[in-house]
Write a structure and sequence with these properties.
The complex is a heterodimer of chains A (about 180) and B (about 150). Chain A is an alpha+beta fold and about 180 residues long. Helix content of chain A is about 40%, strand content about 10%. In chain A, β2 and β3 form a beta hairpin. Chain B has one domain: Acid Proteases (Cathepsin D, subunit A, domain 1, Beta Barrel), CATH 2.40.70.10. Classes of the chains: A alpha+beta (about 180), B mainly beta (about 150).
């Protein structure tokens, strides 16, 4: 594809340059990330006049579906997620070339890495000191189990949260209980 | 509730936090704050972990929120309990206030049916957009939106 479509080379070159501002060795990262492509020779990051940047891909010159373009990109972002580089992963996604934005994997990454959205809500709880006291004095008797507490009152005990919630359906609650698995 | 030096709001809500693992023999100090999730009728304790890249939900809580078995982004975490494969998912949680206003957070959390541990509020994907402060004199956790 790269041999037959110069505009594609330029688009991907632009992508790599953008990624380069985020990573120290983006080409190496992407090449490692994708088993389908390997960059055999990369002569210059800043080609001068008369010097052509040579990027050779081992992939044969057969048509590649557009969504394949997203694979090395997705792998590179995933590598950043694995290494807990959230800011760099977001920067890389922000620099994604437009033609891969509709790729489902890229769309999912963009959604997942969207910064959290925080809003005020009128919901209110109350002082849970009595529940905390109960956990301190009696909690050890229920290790490995889920408990539901209202003040010092034990509303339910169960081996699973699902079971505990079933139990609570039969209890008249005036306000939400504290649910906790005692470790 | 709390204001910044320029007079703008720092925190809109306050809740009491628990400074140790409740009911556990594990003695080291920790900070547990109260959260709520839409489909669970109850308040849950979550441990603050500013060093964690992601927030982590207890597997049974994740199940109750229907977050298991979805096609989230695969992610692996490494913890003192071992390495676990799971998914990153978006969900809505509320940090509930005893005084002032609570906040709801549309956050990214890590979930896995294999996770044997508790619930943690990590910096990435959740705390990174919340101002918070701790007053150990009365175990108050102050928080608010940025």
């Amino acid at each position: 594809m790269y041999e037959r479509n110069p505009s594609s080379i330029l688009a991907n070159w632009a992508m790599l340059r953008k990624i380069g501002s985020v990573l120290d060795s983006p080409l190496e990262l992407i090449a490692e990330s994708s088993p389908e492509f390997s960059i055999r020779r990369f002569r210059s990051c800043h080609p001068t006049l008369g010097e052509t940047t040579i990027i050779e891909f081992t992939r044969p010159a057969e048509p590649v579906p557009p969504e394949r373009d997203a694979v090395p990109f997705v792998m590179a972002v995933r590598r950043l997620i694995e290494t807990e580089q959230l800011v760099a992963a977001r920067q890389m996604l922000a620099a994604a070339p437009t033609h891969i934005l509709t790729d489902p994997l890229v769309a999912r990454l963009r959604s997942i890495l969207t910064p959290p959205v925080v809003k005020r809500v009128q919901k209110r709880d109350f002082d849970r000191t009595r529940e905390y006291e109960w956990l301190g004095t009696d909690g050890h008797k229920y290790r490995g189990r889920w408990v539901a507490l209202d003040g010092h009152r034990l509303l339910g005990v169960a081996s699973s949260l699902r079971e505990l919630r079933e139990q609570l359906k039969t209890v008249a609650l005036t306000h939400p209980p504290l649910l906790h698995r005692v470790d | 509730m709390l204001v910044r030096p320029d007079g703008t709001e720092f925190a809109s809500g306050r809740s009491g936090f628990l400074d140790h693992s409740p009911g556990s023999p594990e003695p080291t100090p920790k900070i547990f704050v109260k959260i709520q999730a839409e489909s669970i009728d109850g308040v849950i304790l979550a441990q603050l972990d500013t060093a964690a890249a992601w927030s982590v939900l207890n597997a049974e809580i994740a199940e109750a929120l229907s977050l298991l078995g979805r096609e989230g982004e695969p992610a692996k975490i490494s913890t003192r309990l071992g390495n676990f494969n799971g998914h990153l998912e978006r969900t809505s949680l509320a940090i509930v206030a005893d005084d002032g206003e609570s906040v709801s957070v549309e956050a990214t959390v890590w979930v896995s049916s294999e996770w044997p541990g508790g619930t943690f509020l990590g910096y990435g994907g959740l705390l990174e957009r919340i101002r918070f402060a701790v007053d150990p004199s009365d175990n108050s956790f102050y928080f608010g939106p940025m």
